[in-house]
Amino acid sequence: MADLATTEPTLESLTRTAGEALRRALSTRSDGGVLSALVEDDLRSALGGLEALHSHLESLVEELLTSRPTPLGLIEAADDAQAQVALESLEESLGSLRRRLALAAARLRAPG
Predict the structure, then answer these.
(1) Distance CA 3, CA 81 (A)
(2) Contact (CB, 8 A) for 56 and 77
(3) What is the rounded distance in angstroms from the CA atom of residue 25 to the CA atom of residue 104?
(4) 57-77 burial code (b ≥16 CB/10 A, e <16)
(5) Shortest CA distance to 74 belongs to which of 83, 64, 82, 65?
(6) DSSP helix/strand/coil, 30
(7) What is the pLDDT of residues 36-86, one digit of tens each?
(8) Positive or negative CA dihedral for 89, 90, 91, 96?
(9) What is the rounded end-to-end Cα distance, in angstroms, of the chain?
(10) pTM
(11) Rounded CA gap, 34 and 31, in Å?
């Protein structure tokens, strides 16, 4: 059984921890909780998009590393429709994250 003290944090727990840290930093602001929750959601969404792209690329590599790749296997591995959707979602998430972090930065500088 793994020692809990040495267990690697998950992306989900890191996202939650980051959201909580921002929430504490914005605690004097009435809208700090909402803004930090939105940042946390954007971060979670962006990380989900990265995971989908990573999974797609892993599948491509696995197919290329087979002893005898088949034409059908290569075509199926190259089907990137889901990866394209994930990439578009990632772009949206990163744009939203950038805007919200800029807003958070401005609110941290402004008096409560």
Answers:
(1) 40
(2) no
(3) 9
(4) eebeeebeeeeeeeeeeeeeb
(5) 64
(6) coil
(7) 999 999 999 999 999 999 999 998 999 999 999 899 988 988 888 888 998
(8) positive
(9) 47
(10) 0.78
(11) 5
Tokens of 107: 């609110």
Name the token pair of 96: 């939203």
Residues comprising the chain, all counted: 112
Residue type, 96: S
Amino acid at 50: L
Please check whether residue 43 is in contact with residue 57, taking contact to mean a CB–CB distance below 8 angstroms: no
Q: Which amino acid is located at 72 in the chain?
A: L
Rounded distance, CA 36 to CA 101, Å? 9
